[in-house]
């Protein structure tokens, strides 16, 4: 995982997920989790971007 991805995971989780996976279910889940709370969005972004 690059430094840019780590910074985006923390600051803008949906953008980081979009850059890695494009538009799809993963992005929608990231947006919903970020709206519910910033921390769940960050955790989801790290999990999704760290696995591939």
UniProtKB/TrEMBL annotation:
The chain crosses the membrane at residues 26-48. Keywords: Membrane, Transmembrane, Transmembrane helix. It comes from the Bacteria. One of its GO terms (cellular component) is membrane. Pfam families: Pmp3 (PF01679). Its main location: membrane. It is found in: Membrane. InterPro entries: PMP3. PANTHER family: HYDROPHOBIC PROTEIN RCI2 LOW TEMPERATURE AND SALT RESPONSIVE PROTEIN LTI6 -RELATED (PTHR21659), UPF0057 MEMBRANE PROTEIN ZK632.10-RELATED (PTHR21659:SF42). Belongs to the UPF0057 (PMP3) family. This is YqaE/Pmp3 family membrane protein. It comes from Zunongwangia atlantica 22II14-10F7.
């Amino acid at each position: 995982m690059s430094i840019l991805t780590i910074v985006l995971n923390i600051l803008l989780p949906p953008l980081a997920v979009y850059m890695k996976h494009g538009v799809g279910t993963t992005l929608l889940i990231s947006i919903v989790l970020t709206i519910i709370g910033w921390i769940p969005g960050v955790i989801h972004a790290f999990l999704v971007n760290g696995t591939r």
